[in-house]
TrEMBL record:
Signal peptide: none annotated. InterPro entries: ATAP, ATAP_core_dom, FeS_cluster_insertion_CS, HesB-like_dom_sf. Residues 8-105 form the Core domain. Gene3D superfamilies: HesB-like domain. NCBIfam families: iron-sulfur cluster assembly accessory protein. The lineage of its organism: Bacteria, Pseudomonadati, Pseudomonadota, Alphaproteobacteria, Rhodobacterales. GO terms for molecular function: 2 iron, 2 sulfur cluster binding; 4 iron, 4 sulfur cluster binding; iron ion binding. This is Iron-sulfur cluster assembly accessory protein. It comes from Celeribacter baekdonensis B30. GO terms for biological process: iron-sulfur cluster assembly.
Amino acid sequence: MSLTLPPKVTARAYERLSEINAATGESKALRVAVEGGGCSGFQYDITLDEPASDDIVLSGTGGTVVIDPVSLPFLENAVIDFTEEVIGARFVIENPNATSSCGCGTSFSM
């Protein structure tokens, strides 16, 4: 059985999470989950949430990212980042395990 390597979170993603928490006056974690669905078979679900007791916790300057144990294998060696473009700003996932993804970047297949 191989060890699953957790995803990496960029400083920019932690910084944006810190800004969101400061603006809301809360201290929530960024939850990144993988669910069945979307146009490619799997989709990312990114929300603000409280950590659960069985979550994998990634901490950095300005925030915490949590991943449930079921989603972790789908996110092995992925990079969680934050991007700002003309069309909007969002958290993005660069997933080396995805064999294809949709145009919007929220769903993928393996």
